[in-house]
Design brief:
Number of helices: 10
Oligomer: single chain
Structural class: mainly alpha
Radius of gyration: 21 Å
Largest sheet: none
Order of helices and strands: HHHHHHHHHH
Number of strands: 0
Helix content: 55-70%
Length: 306
């Protein structure tokens, strides 16, 4: 929750850069563009503060906190059971498969929070939704239950390789660190630092690999009756098809249009991955310590006596 609060400004900036539909190429990466609302991280940061105040950098954070907490619980619950179920699979491949399906399960279970986070992050001074309850009732009334799952297909398509890559690269980086420690190339006295570095790199690798699908997901999430009312009012209309949305972005904005917002995305992914896996390792060590001390983590299943 603390990690999510800290990265909220980067997330808002990333989302707003992602949904802009203007043509994009290498010349635009470092150049200031007067014809777009947000032309880069610094300019977007200043514009949001000027127009919406500091609070503008934290729009959608309440929904995002709910998303992170429920997503983390759902993902690790699924990962635990998948890891046990796939015990006969090669340990090299198992983290990828377990992470892939655990991420898919958690995404489907918590997707409405993700959609709400995106829509609140896209609100300017003229609010589309006054609160989370208002947003839920408005979406249900005007878009039905399907409205809460706009872009779910692209999210599942993104999260499967994303979480698979994250756990796979994390396990591979940890194995590399252990190899370097055995050869006394690096010290064994900085385990937590090594966990954070491996987690940070795993987050960056996985985010880079699937970033185009994240852009598509954001574009699809803001579709609906309020499309022209968001702070970026030039968002095109897309069909619900991931591939049709991708083709339209490439045709109108170029291939690099699929990488809009990648810099704040990677700046967010690094520390997020570091904190995520650091807490993951600390939790595992705590549970192992408690088990070794004879502490019962979960109550034994009751025996049914007839």
């Amino acid at each position: 929750m603390l990690c999510r609060f800290a990265i909220s400004p980067l997330d808002v900036i990333k989302i707003r850069l992602q949904v802009q539909s203007e043509p994009y190429n290498l010349k635009h990466i470092f150049a200031h563009r007067a014809n777009v609302k947000y032309s880069g991280i610094n300019q977007a940061f200043k514009t949001i503060i000027k127009e919406e105040g500091i609070k503008g950098l934290f729009k959608g954070n309440v929904a995002a906190e709910w998303l992170y907490v429920t997503y983390g619980a759902s993902q690790l619950y699924a990962y635990y059971h998948l890891d046990s179920f796939l015990k006969n699979i090669s340990p090299t491949v198992k983290p990828f498969i377990s992470g892939m399906f655990a991420g898919s399960f958690a995404t489907a279970a918590t997707y409405p929070f993700d959609l709400l986070r995106t829509r609140f992050a896209m609100q300017g001074m003229n609010k589309v939704y006054d609160s989370i309850p208002h947003a839920i009732s408005d979406i249900y009334e005007k878009e039905g239950m399907r409205g809460f799952y706009r872009g779910l297909g692209s999210s599942i398509t993104q999260i499967m390789p994303y979480m698979g890559l994250m756990f796979f690269s994390y396990e591979g980086l940890c194995s590399t660190v252990q190899h370097l420690q055995r050869n006394q190339i690096i010290s064994e006295n900085h385990k937590r630092t090594n966990d954070m570095i491996c987690g940070s790199l795993a987050g960056i690798i996985s985010k880079t690999g699937v970033f185009p699908l994240d852009v598509i997901r954001k574009r699809l999430q803001v579709q609906g009756p309020h499309l022209s009312e968001y702070v970026v009012s030039t968002i095109p209309t897309y069909s619900s098809s991931v591939w049709e949305c991708m083709k339209k972005i490439i045709n109108t904005e170029g291939v690099l249009g699929l990488y809009k917002g990648i810099v704040p995305g990677l700046l967010k992914a690094g520390p997020s991955g570091a904190v995520y896996f650091l807490m993951f390792e600390i939790a595992k060590d705590c549970i192992t310590y408690l088990k070794d001390s004879g502490f019962q983590i979960l109550p034994e299943k009751p025996v049914l006596r007839l």
